[in-house]
Amino acid sequence: MRILLLSSAFNSLTQRVFAELRDLGHPVAVELALGDDQRLTAAVRGHEPDLIIAPMLTTAVPEDVWSAYPCLIVHPGPPGDRGPSSLDRAVQGGLDRWGVTVLQAVAEMDAGPVWASADFPVPPDVGKSDLYRGELADAALRAVLLAVERFTSGTYTPVTPPTHTWQPYLRQEERRIDWTRDTTETVLRKLRAADSQPGVLDTFLGAEWYLHGGHPEPHLTGPPGELLATRHGAICRATADGAVWIPELRRRRVPGGPATFKLPAAQAPLKGRGELRGQPTTTDTRHPTGGSYSDITYEEQDTVGYVRFHFPGGAMNTDRCRRLLTAYRHARTRPVDLIVLGGRRDFFSNGIHLNVIEAAEDPAAESLANIEAIDDLVEEILTTTDRLVVAALPGNAAAGGAMLALAADEVWCRAGAVLNPHYRLMGLYGSEYWTYTLPRRVGPEAAARLTEDALPLTAAAAQALGLVDRVVECAPGEFAGEVARMAARLARSEGLPARLGAKKAARERDEAARPLSAWRDDELERMRAVFDDPAAPYHGLRSAFVRKRRPKETPEHLGTPTREHPRTECPNGG
């Protein structure tokens, strides 16, 4: 069945629906809704789809489309819910369960007959974007696949939804924080309901900023609204009864001025902020979810060391890479047999931090510094021969972040994660020793296809290709526990000493055949040529990405119907 995905952007949910449907053997293409209804209608007709699915739309489907083709909309709310800020309202309202609905497009927004629905829990300490990529995405896939099954049967009659009042867009007036009155819990709900977009508009230190993300601070206090401290790029701000950490800020756009973008909060130009207390950085804590804000922690359970990290948007700037390398080196000094690298939930890594690079005085120099820093981390992992290393992916990974995972001996991936092991769409050749690790895992032909096709993969497809060793079927909040149980078994396995011996011998053979430094030098030579060329597409693509500029048309690689990747025998025996 020819399926066309209609979406305002090729976002995480659209990628997951695309990859899952392709795994099932459906020819799937994507058409972006970019504001020109006539052009969109003509493009849809050119695809001649049997079914249209809209995983993420911010505008209405043209009548000429939904009246001519069966068109199913994925709405992030339970049956009967209507409006553009459904998930925002659920998080800000502190609801403990929410839902997702697949409904048929009709003239009235979110009012069509229901083909399928699914509900999901809303953890109290999770932000909207994490929830969207995790629990909501899992539920959306269940509903989409059920809707496709029902549509294919030709016998199912969709159900008329209950009638609910249209809920308008959640405006900044409703999101606004009253620092003198709002409790920490209230402030966190507002921040988490807007963590990725649109942010919470606030005024302090003589400027207007959008606040993105929020974490509790249990110890520091001060006059409500006052900036108290910085740590790991975040700023701490006092509430009516405590304090919160805010990881990112975005300057409000000046009318007629250029688009602004998110940066680590402590890096934003906060004029007149004075000297803030810098909270000490530690790598060893027994309470990774408590105490002061920390984006990198280390803990041990028996003979397993866990280097946990969680960066907003999965972006790793130079500082984060260097701090993560320090934490990893600390783990190597500990009496453990196995090191597990990865967070508890959401993104693993998306590689270098394009926003920080764009804001740098010399973007070319910062690009190189960032690449060198992540390469240093990958090299440290590749040369760890006295213990096993596992990359545990609770969520999506892309570009250099996906290649970072390949440095480990094993890659464990939550079933709902989406992988994008390529760099081409940003105009980059790539580094992170990918020319050594990727072909070693999947073979040279598959490596070339993956990096050239530049398409997302499900965890299952990645496992079939050899990119992933184990797929973990679990809810987002259960991943860390499942990984701990798997890691404990691996650390106790009788064959571990022999495996470490074989690992050391293999590394020595590879080094004798071609030193790691040669792989790195070749990659960096090509990357430097791009960074230092002002006319290279990378610079324009990076600027468009961080400022969220719409493309003028659907990228060619998305508009061609594709099926699943052909199964290949894994060169590494995985």
Describe this structure in words.
This protein is α/β, with parallel strands linked by helices and 574 residues long. Strands 2-1-3-4-5-6 form a six-stranded mixed sheet, with helices on both faces. It starts with a strand and ends in a 15-residue tail after the last helix. The relative contact order is 0.10.
Which of globular, elongated, flat, extended, rod-shaped describes the shape? globular
Number of strands: 24
Class by SSE composition: alpha/beta
Q: Roughly what percent helix?
A: 25-40%
Radius of gyration: 24 Å
Low-pLDDT runs: 280-291, 566-574
How much of the polypeptide forms β-strand, as a percent range?
15-25%
Q: The biggest beta sheet, please?
A: 6 strands, mixed
Q: What order do the helices and strands come in, and which of them pair?
A:
Layout: E1 3-7, H1 12-23, E2 28-32, H2 37-47, E3 51-56, H3 63-66, E4 71-75, H4 86-92, E5 97-104, E6 114-121, H5 128-153, H6 172-175, H7 184-192, E7 200-204, E8 207-212, E9 215-217, E10 227-231, E11 234-238, E12 243-246, E13 248-251, E14 263-264, E15 277-278, E16 296-301, E17 304-309, H8 318-332, E18 338-341, H9 354-359, H10 363-382, E19 388-393, E20 397-398, H11 399-405, E21 410-414, E22 418-420, H12 434-442, H13 444-453, E23 457-458, H14 459-465, E24 470-472, H15 479-492, H16 496-513, H17 516-531, H18 537-546, H19 556-559
Parallel strand pairs: 1-2, 1-3, 3-4, 10-15, 17-18, 18-19, 19-21, 20-22, 21-24
Antiparallel strand pairs: 4-5, 5-6, 7-8, 8-13, 9-12, 10-11, 11-12, 13-14, 16-17, 22-23
Helix pairs in contact: 1-5, 8-10, 10-17, 12-13
